[in-house]
């Protein structure tokens, strides 16, 4: 019996187009398909300068021009993750369970759009549409380098690639996985990007007092591990329910005890200080998987996983605990994903660009 989706992985010492063909062929064999309705293809950054030969090799092996994908800092399937070696990860789909080009007709409210882009292709009007997006930004932690996305077997000059996921119903969840250092506090004074006061106290003073003792006593506070969380809805339950967006610290200003953030806030918003922590992230991912499984209701047919490059093996100590937790929960489930420079998923009834997070999509074929 053929499977609705299956994956293949191939990597080695050189960035050869054959890796893409081999990954597709292995996926077809697992799915018991002679040809694919469509292919999701992720390539390591070694292919970014010229992905065309690998894309064409994947299309030939699949017998389909419907190849969508991106180059990324790293790639993954349920088998393993690849960061340093040239390689390809492919998921093949049996029609009618397939990513398909978006047509002119209005999309159903439950439609899910596979969305991939380069840093230059990411725009607010593209992200902000009234349908659910899931995907990632092709890039590394710094957004440097030649990164590419493609759809229909061709590089996308716009830097954006979209495909509607047909024949499935899906559930999308995101794991931000930070350790809250404070409860949400009202922003009492703010000027542009600079938060002056939280409640009755200077913002920097609140941050320093909230830090664990071992961190507070360091000569330099590790600001790259600390961020603000801006809550939505009831602040009493927002952290527990994941209703917040992360706002990264740009600078701590000793002169006026303010904190400069990456996105401006408004007076009256609620902000809590948080810290990146592997154990907290692992617990949060486990809960995220369970929430998604419960919402889906049935055993998933395949999964898409988009962890931040800063959340993967470099964060967990040469292991990807997000991937390990997912494959342990669903043994044998086809999983494909990429490590990128921003993760795309829903938040507060809108599409959101996450950072240092993992976005998960569980999908069940409608015929299954």
TrEMBL record:
Q: Which residues form the FIST domain?
A: 36-202
Example GO biological process: protein polyubiquitination
Pfam family membership, one: FIST_C
Q: Which UniProt keywords apply?
A: Kinase, Transferase
> Where is each FIST C-domain domain found?
203-347
Q: Which SMART domains match?
A: FIST (SM00897), FIST_C (SM01204)
Q: Which GO terms describe its molecular function?
A: kinase activity
Instruction: From the Swiss-Prot or TrEMBL record, give the protein name.
Output: Histidine kinase
């Amino acid at each position: 019996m053929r499977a609705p989706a299956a994956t293949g992985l191939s990597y080695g010492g050189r960035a050869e187009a054959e890796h893409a063909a081999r990954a597709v062929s292995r996926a077809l064999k697992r799915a018991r398909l002679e040809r694919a309705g469509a292919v999701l293809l992720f390539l390591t950054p070694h292919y970014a300068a010229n992905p065309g030969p690998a894309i064409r090799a994947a299309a030939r092996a699949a017998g389909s021009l419907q190849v969508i994908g991106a180059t990324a800092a790293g790639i993954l399937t349920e088998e393993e993750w690849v960061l340093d070696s040239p390689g390809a990860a492919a998921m093949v789909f049996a029609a009618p369970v397939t990513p398909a080009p978006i047509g002119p007709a209005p999309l159903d409210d439950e439609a899910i759009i596979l969305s991939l882009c380069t840093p230059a292709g990411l725009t607010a009007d593209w992200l902000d549409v009234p349908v659910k997006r899931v995907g990632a930004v092709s890039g590394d932690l710094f957004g440097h380098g030649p990164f590419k996305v493609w759809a229909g077997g061709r590089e996308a000059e716009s830097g954006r690639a979209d495909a509607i996921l047909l024949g499935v119903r899906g559930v999308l969840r995101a794991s931000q996985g930070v350790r809250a250092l404070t409860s949400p506090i009202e922003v009492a004074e703010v000027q542009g990007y600079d938060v002056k006061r939280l409640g009755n106290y200077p913002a920097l003073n609140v941050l320093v007092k909230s830090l664990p003792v071992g961190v507070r006593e360091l000569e330099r506070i590790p600001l790259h591990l600390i961020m603000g969380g801006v809550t939505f809805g009831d602040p009493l339950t927002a952290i527990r329910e994941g209703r917040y967006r992360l706002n990264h610290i740009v600078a701590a200003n000793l002169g006026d005890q303010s904190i400069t953030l990456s996105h401006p806030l408004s007076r009256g918003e609620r902000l809590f200080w948080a810290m990146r922590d592997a154990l907290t992230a692992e617990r949060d991912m486990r809960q995220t998987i369970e929430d998604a499984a419960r919402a889906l209701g049935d055993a998933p047919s395949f999964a898409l996983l988009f962890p931040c490059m800063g959340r993967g093996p470099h964060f967990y100590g040469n292991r990807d605990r997000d991937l390990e937790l997912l494959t342990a929960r669903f043994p044998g489930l086809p999983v494909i994903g990429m490590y990128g420079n921003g993760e795309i998923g829903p938040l507060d009834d809108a599409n959101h660009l996450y950072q240092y997070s993992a976005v998960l999509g569980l999908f069940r074929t409608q015929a299954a």
